[in-house]
Specification:
Strands 1, 2, 3, 4, 5, 6, 12, 13 and 14 form a 9-stranded mixed sheet that branches. Strands 7, 8, 9, 10 and 11 form a 5-stranded antiparallel sheet that branches. The protein is elongated, with a radius of gyration of 25 Å. 49% of the residues are buried. Strand 3, helix 5 and strand 4 form a beta-alpha-beta unit. By secondary structure, it is of the alpha/beta class. 36% of the residues lie in helices and 20% in strands. Helix 3 packs across helix 14, helix 4 runs parallel beside helix 5 and helix 5 packs across helix 14. Bound molecules: zinc ion (ZN).
């Protein structure tokens, strides 16, 4: 697996050897798989469900109790703990040099209903582990360090949106799984929804942000690779495609006199697949839903509405694929006399590439620890995608057994968790030494 690392570095055209040098007396060896496993187990006691996972939805009693446990661990690790106005728990350790921006790392501990014990939790426990190891080894960093446990990740990245681009008022009025509105929930965990401005961090205020997280897919597990270096979180765009034909008698209308909206839709669906397949890149495009009207066996479809979804790490690529689809649709519309229009149904999410330098630093950290790694996108959303707006951001994935997530069957081994925490530790130290400068 080492070879993959080499190939990536060559491909990136980077002399990463200097980044890979972990100091002789690196404290990474003191990252404890047993301690992490013990804490994951303890955390899973808050909101335990009968299936062996957790239902620790944000703002619930279980979430509030779990948050207290995390604050306690942070204090034991020597962190100065505060809750910002958005309810994010932030533990800070001062640096040796005044006026340097903080290096922030962390994740979330809230879960989906019927969730597992690792999504988010590994990132928070792993971040505390990093500080604990620095502390026991007496390692001072130049930059301040901040460990973050974000509010309500599963309910729409509430804490990280509040910290970066700001929460919409409408989102504050949404009812969360706890039964409380987001506004009430933020208050319940010690935040102040009337002063969310105070939770905002400006671009440049943080030196970097790093999130350790389980992959939630099966790529690392199936290939037996230790670490995923996340290239970014894919963007998703949706449209309704409306195809207008003419509904008419299926028995009396000759084949050459039809304006069949469903035949045009079928042609377009094939074109979409062909375009997404033949365009260079890793974009994906999907028609996942189709409705023909009036929807009777003996009537030529007069109208079809189908969905179009395109995903990629780059907005430009999503646009490129969409433009090609639109051009193909114009031809089909003309040839079959069935006007076709595309109605955007909202940007589900904007692509959030991680910082290229951060990817190199993380890859070099894995190399330095003799861990195999693969560069990969994230198909799921994470707090890190918001943090890309204000700080150089990186993400470290560790394997999820069988790729199962958002389920009580979610599992990551203690060794894999510890590997992730070691890479996080080395990444933090490399940034502290100036790897981003
Ligand atoms: Zn998560």
């Amino acid at each position: 697996m080492f070879r993959q690392g080499i190939m990536f570095l060559l491909a990136a055209g980077v002399a990463a050897a200097s980044l890979a040098q972990t100091s002789e007396n690196s404290p990474a060896g003191d990252v404890s798989a047993a301690r992490m496993a013990e804490r994951i187990e303890a955390l899973s006691g808050f909101g335990k469900n009968p299936e062996g996972g957790v239902s620790r939805v944000a703002f619930s009693e279980a979430d509030i109790a779990g948050r207290e446990y995390i604050k306690e661990l942070m204090r034991e690790a020597g962190l100065d703990v505060r809750v910002d106005t958005a309810g994010n728990i932030i533990g800070r350790r001062e640096g040796s040099e005044r006026d340097l921006p903080a290096i922030m790392f962390g994740s979330h501990i809230d879960s989906v209903p019927g969730g597992g014990n690792y999504d988010g939790d590994v990132g928070v426990i792993g971040a505390i582990e990093v500080v604990e190891v620095l502390e026991t080894n007496g390692v001072a960093t130049r930059h301040p360090l901040e460990v973050a446990s974000f509010t309500d990740e599963e309910g729409g990245l509430v804490g990280s949106v509040a910290m970066t681009t700001g929460l919409e008022d409408s989102h504050l009025d949404d009812t969360s799984h706890s039964g409380l509105t987001v506004r009430e929930g933020i208050r319940a965990v010690g935040g102040n929804p009337d002063r969310l401005d105070l939770a905002r961090r400006k671009p440049g205020e943080l030196a970097a942000f790093i999130e350790l997280h389980i992959e939630q897919g099966a790529i690392l597990d199936e290939a037996d690779i230790d670490i995923g270096v996340v290239e970014g979180i894919v963007g998703i765009r949706w449209w309704d495609v409306v195809i207008e034909g003419f509904a008419n008698h299926a028995g009396t209308t000759p084949m050459n006199r039809r304006r069949d909206a469903l035949v045009s839709a079928a042609e377009l669906a094939l074109e979409i697949n062909r375009i997404a397949t033949s365009t260079p890149g890793r974009q994906v495009a999907t028609v996942g839903r189709i409705r023909a009207e009036p929807g009777a066996p003996n009537v030529i479809p007069g109208r079809v509405v189908m969905s179009l979804e395109i995903r990629d790490l780059e907005t430009a690529k999503i646009t490129q694929v969409f433009d090609a689809v639109e051009a193909a649709a114009a031809q089909i519309a003309e040839a079959r006399d069935t006007p076709i229009r595309f109605e955007p149904t909202g940007v589900a999410s904007v692509p959030a590439p991680t910082d290229e330098r951060m990817r190199r630093i993380i890859a070099a950290a894995a190399d330095g620890l003799n861990l195999s790694y693969q560069v990969m996108p994230s198909g799921a959303g994470h707090d890190a995608q918001d943090m890309t707006h204000i700080a150089p951001t990186g993400m470290i994935f560790v394997p999820s057994r069988d790729g199962i997530s958002h389920s009580p069957k979610e599992y990551t081994s203690p060794e894999d968790m510890a590997n992730g925490s070691k890479v996080l530790l080395e990444t933090v130290l490399a940034i502290d030494r100036g790897a981003l400068e």
